[in-house]
Amino acid sequence: MNPLTDLELVQQVRNGKRQAYTELMRRYQQRVYWVARRIVGNHDDADDVAQETFVKAYLALGDFRGDSSFFTWLYRIAVNLSLNSVRKQQVMNYLRESPLISSMLPAKDNPHAELEMKETESRLQKAVALLPEKQKAVFVMRYYEEMSYEEISEVLKTSVGGLKANYFHALKKVQEFMKDETTKRQD
Amino acid sequence: MKLRRDKIEVTDDAEREAVGAVRRLATEDDYQESIARQPSYFVNLTVKTNERIDHVTSGKALSISWLARVAVPGVVAILFFFIGLHYYVPDLASEKHSIAESVKALPPEDIDLLLAASSSETALTAAELHIDLFKVSNDQLADFYVASENPTIVLESLPEHQLDEVAAILESRSTNL
Predict the structure, then answer these.
(1) Model confidence pLDDT, tens digit, residues A33-49
(2) Domain presence at residue B45
(3) pLDDT at residue B30 above 60?
(4) Which residues contact A53 (CB under 8 A, 6 or more apart)?
(5) How many structural domains compose chain A?
(6) What pLDDT sits at residue B130?
């Protein structure tokens, strides 16, 4: 028997069949997790973004008109939430730098885990983390996910020409960063 | 409008070359994917997400969400409206009342004075309305000259014809004395 298409599953969810949504989650959770992980740069935030993406998608399923594929739609939610998460991280990092404010913020759950993560963080991850938002999203989708420019264009609502330039700039920056890191390691 | 000076035409070859360079630089340690490599993680992710959806769609969560998004802001807005109405709208009725009250509170003789003043003829005539307040008569100029500590300045500032008239007035006053 042929498996149901995404749209058929969406229709079933709309008709109240919750099990159909679990099937949609199984199909896409790995890709959603990885796009989030590569944009936000750590497991905990990526885990949260992945869950939030499916919750948001479930609640907004009534608005899904099927103009784009379910996956593209889901991906758009995941990318937006990931970029929001990065912004939150940036704000928190900024606040933690202030001694007065950092004393009011909750302590990190496991400082050792953070240290461990920083040590094992790859050069590529570090390079991606330094990219501007848009370039980061394009880089993740194109380099890791190997999505076509047309698909990325649907997710980010940007022209293909602009995406190509963004990706090329991102590649050059990543390349430069990694070369510098290699030189540092050799020294 | 912001102009882009460094607009580049990215060819497929240039992109392939750049991707190749990054892939060559990214060694094995660049592909560490720790926790999520464990197969149990994604099973747990489905369970956790389902729990979250259950929580969000539960009656309690919906009513809390409704309270937070609709009820509380609504009540606050209504409260602010009434507070604003109370403090910022001028109460004209009470102002009228207070003027009447204050007149009544005056001593009887003052009330009589007010009445006499209001009944006396204080209105200006049409001719008076056309008087040029800044026009100074020659008599007034002569008075000013006499009272002035430095009369030469007064004389120097007068036009020729007025100077003669003021001089005549001063002369006639001195002969009268």
Answers:
(1) 999 998 998 889 999 99
(2) yes
(3) no
(4) A32, A36, A74, A77, A78, A81
(5) 2
(6) 62
